[in-house]
Amino acid sequence: MTAETSQTLDRGLRVLKLLADTDHGLTVTELSNKLGVNRTVVYRLLATLEQHALVRRDLGGRARVGLGVLRLSRQVHPLVREAALPALRSLAEDIGATAHLTLVDGAEALAVAVVEPTWTDYHVAYRTGFRHSLDRGAAGRAILAARQDAHSEPRCTLTHGELEAGASGAAAALVGVTGIEGSVGVVMLADAVPERVGPRVVDAAREVADALR
């Protein structure tokens, strides 16, 4: 800790991070041990975070992340979209296909940014806000593949006709971005994705990941 930082705020943020990393919550004693502070300090931290709905405690006394975190997370999408747009524009123009950034939203894939090419006679209409299950379409499948090997380099996943008849997709997951699970991809009207598209999509995924770090 330096003179310019707040020890209490630092501890509060560490509590939120610890709770975010567990599905079953943590007790006061467990948090006390992990933070290296006494239980009284933990009680005060939890009480403050509860007032802002960032933490909730169940009947058994285990602390979990509260619904207030969701309100904060809604502001993340515009920031992520802004960071990703330059790479998406370049990808769409290079490939001549609709490029998109897709993030995990619960059990679904949610398109949060879409860029269509400016020079093509026709292309797939793919709108921001479009949702689909993670196990259908290149965007979701790329994310699921990355979950199996979280430390690997991004790889391109290809699909055809899973979300729209006659359309093919290519996507690569964002790798190494803390707190964000998503993919970058393109969708095109074609029976198969041209060979050059895969490496270009992977490069775009790396660009977006770098912009978000």
TrEMBL record:
PROSITE patterns: HTH_ICLR (PS51077), ICLR_ED (PS51078). Residues 63-213 form the IclR-ED domain. It holds the Pfam family IclR_C. One of its GO terms (molecular function) is DNA binding. GO terms for biological process: negative regulation of DNA-templated transcription. It comes from the Bacteria. The keyword Transcription applies. InterPro entries: ArsR-like_HTH, GAF-like_dom_sf, HTH_MetabolicPath_Reg, Tscrpt_reg_IclR_C, Tscrpt_reg_IclR_N, WH-like_DNA-bd_sf, WH_DNA-bd_sf. Residues 6-67 form the HTH iclR-type domain. Keywords: DNA-binding, Transcription, Transcription regulation. The keyword DNA-binding applies. Coiled coil: none annotated. This is HTH domain-containing protein. It comes from Streptomyces corynorhini.
